Automatic annotation (TrEMBL):
GO molecular function, one term: hydrolase activity
Pfam families per the UniProt record, alphabetical: Apiosidase (PF13204), Collagen_bind_2 (PF12904)
Keywords from the named record: Hydrolase, Signal
Coiled coil: none
Superkingdom of the organism of origin: Bacteria
InterPro entries: Apiosidase-like_cat_dom, Collagen-bd_put, GH
Protein name: Glycoside hydrolase
Species this protein is from: Flavobacterium hibernum
Domain Putative collagen-binding: 376-466
Length: 468
């Protein structure tokens, strides 16, 4: 442990013995609280506190807390439950002057160390509860729908632009969050927020350490800037439980950054899982469905359901512990009268039914259909791996293997990588979850498998092999 981290730990521990915070605590209203999420024994995946596999299927609802009223909240979380999502990523403070749908400000004088808390939280009367009471309400609704909130304490631009957040303010704010939400089991913390981890690192370490010291059962990671990873700066930080990368929104030809993985998000996973100590990792922000290639030029083509599927299967088959989907309209909760970002004109209430949002459940179902915690990536199975959109990727357990093609190109396999003299081969359609049996084949030598349809982007398939 380096001296900086030791100092931060000592700082946070000292605050544990200070006077108790005057802020009220947020206690769950339902008796049936969700089980806490923890890291699996093999350090690669998530499990519930009773050791059941937890596949992170996230949605990006960044502005949920600031823009949705109670009816909107009920509609949104019920929809996400029906579509299989179990995590929603949100900003607690998008800006320092943020207000919720009822006009309640989060802070006094835009001071992060002074949350504007008023007595009472009568959810039957919005005029009598504050910004933080509304956060409590959203947590309750999420819990009712079996969903965990992955909460960004303060969005990165509030720290990186100017001197709006000092070390002292950051520590007081993190202590407030830790005290208020210490009994919540459906909270995961995303420190940072679309920001560079090598900038204002001390602030992020203070927030992360304070949250972890006071609430060790709540998992914490860092949500980084595009085409970067939490492991770049915080992999060895004691407060960081798992890694998160942002594979971003640019095409191969739009990315001129040196040493960038570009669209190859599976490379983040491969790198992270080679680090010590081993920590789970996942893509917390791939290209959003409905957003322009490269973000800012609205005349560019938009990313589609084909692309969000590709990012999902590439990263998960590489060994990621889950995946976060996003849609341009939903991430900003776009309503009539809004001045939309990134050229969006679609209402969030329509966009929740986008094709990609409906298809994400199939990757989750597929992964949980087989023994999950024994799963490992294995590219040695593939004799014709390819590159860019033609890249083939494989994951396997002891008695099963899954191989993904984004373009429907021929798959050539080196057999004998799973148990059994013979295997049953099946095609799985990521667009609708349907299976088509191929037959029983010998589990030796080299075998070729040709998906149906022409070779093109978005004609994606998963080949399933199961030991006989």
């Amino acid at each position: 442990m380096n001296l900086k981290i030791k100092y931060l730990y000592a700082l946070c521990i000292s605050f544990m013995f200070t006077a108790q915070s005057a802020y009220s605590q947020s206690t769950p209203k339902q008796n049936d609280t969700l089980p806490s999420i923890k890291i699996s024994q093999n350090q690669h995946y998530f499990v519930t506190e009773n050791e059941k596999p937890f596949f992170w299927l996230g949605d990006t609802g960044w502005l949920t807390l600031g823009k949705l009223n109670r009816a909107d909240v009920e509609k949104y979380f019920q929809d996400r439950k029906e579509k299989g999502f179990n995590v929603v990523q949100v900003m607690v403070l998008h800006t320092l002057n943020v207000k919720n749908a009822y006009g309640n400000a989060a802070l006094t004088n835009e001071d992060i160390s002074k949350p504007l808390v008023t007595p009472g939280n009568d959810f039957n009367n919005p005029a009598e509860y504050d910004y933080w009471d509304h956060v409590d309400y959203v947590l309750d609704v999420a819990q009712k729908n079996g969903i965990y909130l992955a909460m960004v304490p303060v969005w990165g631009t509030n720290v990186s632009k100017g001197d709006k957040v000092s070390k002292e303010q950051a520590q007081k704010y993190a202590k407030f969050l830790a005290n208020r939400y210490q009994d919540r089991t459906n909270i995961i913390w995303l420190n940072g927020g679309d920001t560079h981890g090598n900038e204002f690192t001390t602030i992020w370490n203070i927030i992360g350490s304070t949250l972890k010291i006071h609430n060790p059962r709540q998992l914490i990671t860092f949500h980084p800037f595009g085409r970067t990873d939490s492991s770049d700066n915080f992999h060895n930080s004691p407060w960081l439980d798992f890694n998160m990368f942002q594979s971003g929104h640019r095409r191969y030809d739009q990315d001129t950054l040196p040493k960038s993985f570009k669209e190859d998000n599976y490379k983040f996973v491969q790198r992270d899982l080679s680090l010590k100590p081993i920590k789970p990792t996942l893509d917390g922000e791939p290209s959003y469905e409905g957003i322009p290639h490269g973000l800012h030029d609205t005349l560019q083509p938009k990313w589609t359901d084909n692309d969000v599927r590709r990012y999902a299967y590439w990263s998960v088959f590489a060994g990621a512990a889950g995946y976060t989907y996003g849609h341009n309209a939903v991430m900003q909760m776009f309503k009539k009268g809004d001045k939309g970002a990134y050229g969006n004109k679609e209402l969030w209430t329509d966009a929740i039914n986008a094709p990609g949002a409906k298809q994400m459940i199939y990757v989750k179902k597929l992964m949980l259909e087989f023994p999950y915690l024994e799963r490992v990536p294995d590219q040695s199975m593939i004799a014709n791996q390819g590159e860019k959109y033609d890249y083939l990727i494989a994951t396997k357990g002891k008695k099963y293997a899954l191989i993904y093609t984004y373009t429907g190109r021929k798959i050539v396999l080196n057999m004998g990588k799973i148990a059994g003299e013979k295997v049953t081969a099946t095609w799985y359609n990521p667009r609708n979850g349907q299976k088509t049996k191929i037959g029983v084949i010998d589990n030796k030598g080299t075998k070729e498998f040709q998906p149906s349809g022409s070779k093109k982007d978005g004609n994606d398939w998963v080949l399933i092999l199961e030991s006989k």
